[in-house]
C-alpha cells in the first residue's frame, strides 16, 4: 500500500464535509495549554454556576490527548443554523409572544451533527485504514471555541462566541478527534489565535466595538471575552433547574428559552448565511407563538410536540417556570392572571413560586403605579434599542 498523502487527504476531508452539509471545516493541533489558566480562572470565579460537569473534567477539557488517548489533531466543523424569516425584532417587540432562541426552533443539533461527523470518520477510514476518531458536539469535556479558532474557523468575539467575517456567528461547532498527522489549517484566524497566545493580547475584528457587552440585558459579559454564566439568560432558562434569581426575572422580558441579544447586536451578523438544513427551520410555530398558548400545554402535549427538539431536554417544570416569568413581564391582562392562577394547583413548588412572582408583577401593573411603569420602561429600554438596531441592520432577519 502506498504511503498516505495527508495533504491530499485533508483536501478530500474538506470536500466530504461539504457533501455532508457542513458549512466549514478546519484542522488544528491539540495544544490548548494557553487556555488552561483562563479555564481555571473562569471556574475559580464560580462563573459555571451549578454546571458541575464543567469543573468535573478539570484540565482534561484543555488536553484532547488525555480525553481520547492517541489524538494528535482535531478536525473542527461549523454548521450554520439561522432559519429563514427569523423574526427577531418582531417577536422581541411583542411582549405577549414567546421568544425562543433561534437555534432551538427546529431539531436538536447534537444528534444531527454527531451522525454527520461519524459519517465523515467512516469516509476517512476508507482511505486510511489505520485510523481512529471520536466525534464531539457541545460536549462539556471539549474546549470547542479555542479549538475552532486554532482551526481557522473564526475568532472568539467579546461575547465569547465564534464569529466568521463571511458567516457571522449563527452556527454550531463540532469536532472529530483523530490520530493521523493531517496538515494544520492556516489562515488569518489561526494566525491571530497563535499571536494572541504569544503576545497575551487579543487582536481581532472586534476592534474597539463593545456593543454586545452594552446590550446584554443582564450584564452577563462581565469583561471582554468572559461570560458569567450565572447571569446569562441562556443559563438560567436552559441549563439551571433552580429558581431564576429574582433580580434577573424582569430583565428576561419574553425570552423563555435562551437568548440571542449579544449576537443580534453584533455588526458581523449582517453577513450571516441562512441555514440550508430543513431541520433547523421552525416547527410547531415556535417562531411566532403566544406565551398563553404555550402555558396552556399539558406535560403530555409538551413531550409529544417537542420530540426531537432541544427544548424537550429542560423538562416541563423548567418550561413552565420560564413562561411564568415571561407572563409576569407581559402587559397586564385578566386572561394572564386567570391562566397563572389556574395553573397553580398542579404545579411544582418551584413553578408555584414563579407563578406567585408573576401574579405580583401583574397586579402591580394593574395599579399602574408610576414606580412600576418607570421600572418597566427602564427594563425594556435596552430591548427597544436592540429592536431598532435589528430593524435597521438586519432587515432580512428582523
Ligand atoms: C457552558 C456553555 C455555555 C454557558 C457558558 C457560556 C460561556 N460563554 O462560557 C451558557 C449556558 C451561558 C451558554 C450560553 C450560550 N451558548 Co453555550 N456552550 C457552553 C459550552 C458547553 C462550554 C463553553 C465553555 O467552556 N465556557 C468556559 C470558557 C472559559 O471557555 P471558552 O469560552 O470556550 O474559552 C474561552 C477563553 O479561553 C476565552 N479567552 C480567550 N482568549 C482570551 C483572552 C482574554 C483576555 C480573556 C479574558 C478570555 C479569553 O475565550 C475563549 C474562547 O471563547 C460550549 C460547548 C463546548 N464544549 O465548548 C457551548 C457553546 C459555546 N455554546 C454555544 C451557543 C450557541 C450558546 C448560546 C448562543 C445559546 C443561546 N442562544 O442561548 C449562548 C450564548 C451566550 C454567550 N454569550 O456565551 C455554541 C457557540 C457556537 C459559536 N458560534 O461560538 C457552543 C460552542 C456549542 C456548540 N457546539 O455549538 N453556553
Ligand atoms: S446570551 Fe443574552 S444574557 Fe447571555 S451574554 Fe448574550 S446577551 Fe447576555
Ligand atoms: S458586538 Fe462587537 S465586540 Fe461584540 S462580538 Fe460583535 S464585533 Fe465583537
From TrEMBL:
<keyword id="KW-0819">tRNA processing</keyword>
<keyword id="KW-0479">Metal-binding</keyword>
<dbReference type="InterPro" id="IPR004453">
    <property type="entry name" value="QueG"/>
</dbReference>
<dbReference type="GO" id="GO:0051539">
    <property type="term" value="F:4 iron, 4 sulfur cluster binding"/>
</dbReference>
<feature type="binding site">
    <location>
        <position position="173"/>
    </location>
    <ligand>
        <name>cob(II)alamin</name>
    </ligand>
</feature>
<comment type="pathway">
    <text>tRNA modification; tRNA-queuosine biosynthesis.</text>
</comment>
<dbReference type="InterPro" id="IPR017896">
    <property type="entry name" value="4Fe4S_Fe-S-bd"/>
</dbReference>
<keyword id="KW-0004">4Fe-4S</keyword>
<feature type="binding site">
    <location>
        <position position="162"/>
    </location>
    <ligand>
        <name>cob(II)alamin</name>
    </ligand>
</feature>
<comment type="similarity">
    <text>Belongs to the QueG family.</text>
</comment>
<keyword id="KW-0963">Cytoplasm</keyword>
<comment type="function">
    <text>Catalyzes the conversion of epoxyqueuosine (oQ) to queuosine (Q), which is a hypermodified base found in the wobble positions of tRNA(Asp), tRNA(Asn), tRNA(His) and tRNA(Tyr).</text>
</comment>
<feature type="binding site">
    <location>
        <position position="216"/>
    </location>
    <ligand>
        <name>[4Fe-4S] cluster 2</name>
    </ligand>
</feature>
<feature type="binding site">
    <location>
        <position position="61"/>
    </location>
    <ligand>
        <name>cob(II)alamin</name>
    </ligand>
</feature>
<dbReference type="GO" id="GO:0052693">
    <property type="term" value="F:epoxyqueuosine reductase activity"/>
</dbReference>
<keyword id="KW-0170">Cobalt</keyword>
<protein>
    <recommendedName>
        <fullName>Epoxyqueuosine reductase</fullName>
        <ecNumber>1.17.99.6</ecNumber>
    </recommendedName>
</protein>
<keyword id="KW-0411">Iron-sulfur</keyword>
<feature type="binding site">
    <location>
        <position position="259"/>
    </location>
    <ligand>
        <name>[4Fe-4S] cluster 2</name>
    </ligand>
</feature>
<feature type="binding site">
    <location>
        <begin position="259"/>
        <end position="260"/>
    </location>
    <ligand>
        <name>cob(II)alamin</name>
    </ligand>
</feature>
<keyword id="KW-0671">Queuosine biosynthesis</keyword>
<feature type="binding site">
    <location>
        <position position="234"/>
    </location>
    <ligand>
        <name>cob(II)alamin</name>
    </ligand>
</feature>
<dbReference type="Pfam" id="PF08331">
    <property type="entry name" value="QueG_DUF1730"/>
</dbReference>
<dbReference type="Pfam" id="PF13484">
    <property type="entry name" value="Fer4_16"/>
</dbReference>
<feature type="binding site">
    <location>
        <position position="262"/>
    </location>
    <ligand>
        <name>[4Fe-4S] cluster 2</name>
    </ligand>
</feature>
<dbReference type="GO" id="GO:0005737">
    <property type="term" value="C:cytoplasm"/>
</dbReference>
<dbReference type="GO" id="GO:0046872">
    <property type="term" value="F:metal ion binding"/>
</dbReference>
<feature type="domain" description="4Fe-4S ferredoxin-type">
    <location>
        <begin position="197"/>
        <end position="226"/>
    </location>
</feature>
<keyword id="KW-0560">Oxidoreductase</keyword>
<dbReference type="GO" id="GO:0008616">
    <property type="term" value="P:tRNA queuosine(34) biosynthetic process"/>
</dbReference>
<feature type="binding site">
    <location>
        <position position="209"/>
    </location>
    <ligand>
        <name>[4Fe-4S] cluster 1</name>
    </ligand>
</feature>
<dbReference type="InterPro" id="IPR013542">
    <property type="entry name" value="QueG_DUF1730"/>
</dbReference>
<feature type="binding site">
    <location>
        <position position="206"/>
    </location>
    <ligand>
        <name>[4Fe-4S] cluster 1</name>
    </ligand>
</feature>
<dbReference type="GO" id="GO:0031419">
    <property type="term" value="F:cobalamin binding"/>
</dbReference>
<feature type="binding site">
    <location>
        <position position="212"/>
    </location>
    <ligand>
        <name>[4Fe-4S] cluster 1</name>
    </ligand>
</feature>
<feature type="active site" description="Proton donor">
    <location>
        <position position="138"/>
    </location>
</feature>
<comment type="subunit">
    <text>Monomer.</text>
</comment>
<keyword id="KW-0846">Cobalamin</keyword>
<dbReference type="InterPro" id="IPR017900">
    <property type="entry name" value="4Fe4S_Fe_S_CS"/>
</dbReference>
<keyword id="KW-0408">Iron</keyword>
<feature type="binding site">
    <location>
        <position position="138"/>
    </location>
    <ligand>
        <name>cob(II)alamin</name>
    </ligand>
</feature>
<feature type="binding site">
    <location>
        <position position="266"/>
    </location>
    <ligand>
        <name>[4Fe-4S] cluster 1</name>
    </ligand>
</feature>
Amino acid at each position: 500500500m502506498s504511503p498516505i498523502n495527508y495533504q491530499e487527504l485533508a483536501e478530500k476531508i474538506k470536500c466530504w464535509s461539504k457533501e455532508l452539509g457542513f458549512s466549514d471545516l478546519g484542522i488544528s493541533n491539540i495544544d490548548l495549554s494557553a487556555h488552561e489558566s483562563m479555564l481555571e480562572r473562569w471556574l475559580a470565579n464560580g462563573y459555571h454556576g451549578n454546571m458541575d460537569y464543567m469543573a468535573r473534567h478539570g484540565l482534561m477539557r484543555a488536553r484532547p490527548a488525555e480525553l481520547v488517548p492517541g489524538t494528535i489533531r482535531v478536525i473542527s466543523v461549523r454548521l450554520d443554523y439561522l432559519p429563514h424569516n427569523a423574526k427577531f425584532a418582531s417577536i422581541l417587540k411583542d411582549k405577549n409572544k414567546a421568544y425562543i432562541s433561534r437555534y432551538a426552533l427546529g431539531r436538536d443539533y447534537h444528534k444531527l451533527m454527531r451522525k454527520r461527523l461519524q459519517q465523515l470518520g467512516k469516509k476517512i477510514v476508507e482511505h486510511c485504514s489505520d485510523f481512529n476518531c471520536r466525534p464531539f458536539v457541545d460536549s462539556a469535556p471539549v474546549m470547542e471555541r479555542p479549538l475552532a479558532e486554532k482551526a481557522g474557523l473564526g475568532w472568539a468575539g467579546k461575547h465569547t462566541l465564534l464569529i466568521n467575517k463571511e458567516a457571522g456567528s449563527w452556527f454550531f461547532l463540532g469536532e472529530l478527534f483523530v490520530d493521523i498527522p493531517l496538515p494544520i489549517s492556516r489562515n488569518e484566524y489561526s494566525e491571530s489565535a497563535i499571536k494572541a497566545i504569544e503576545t497575551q493580547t487579543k487582536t481581532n475584528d472586534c476592534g474597539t466595538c463593545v456593543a454586545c457587552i452594552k446590550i446584554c440585558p443582564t450584564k452577563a459579559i462581565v469583561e471582554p471575552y468572559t461570560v458569567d454564566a450565572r447571569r446569562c439568560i441562556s443559563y438560567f432558562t436552559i441549563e439551571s433547574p433552580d429558581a431564576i434569581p429574582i433580580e434577573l426575572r424582569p430583565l428576561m422580558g419574553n425570552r423563555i428559552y435562551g437568548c440571542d441579544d449579544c449576537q443580534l447586536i453584533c455588526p458581523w451578523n449582517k453577513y450571516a448565511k441562512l441555514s440550508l438544513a430543513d431541520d433547523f427551520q421552525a416547527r410547531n410555530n415556535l417562531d411566532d407563538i403566544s406565551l398563553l398558548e404555550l402555558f396552556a400545554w399539558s406535560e403530555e402535549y409538551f413531550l409529544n410536540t417537542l420530540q426531537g427538539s432541544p427544548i424537550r431536554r429542560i423538562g416541563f417544570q423548567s418550561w413552565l417556570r420560564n413562561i411564568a416569568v415571561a407572563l409576569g413581564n407581559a402587559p397586564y391582562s385578566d386572561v394572564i392572571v386567570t391562566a397563572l392562577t389556574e395553573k397553580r394547583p398542579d404545579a411544582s413548588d418551584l413553578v408555584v413560586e414563579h407563578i406567585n412572582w408573576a401574579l405580583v408583577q401583574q397586579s402591580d401593573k394593574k395599579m399602574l403605579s408610576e414606580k412600576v411603569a418607570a421600572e418597566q420602561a427602564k427594563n425594556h429600554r435596552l430591548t427597544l434599542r436592540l429592536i431598532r438596531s435589528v430593524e435597521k441592520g438586519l432587515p432580512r432577519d428582523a
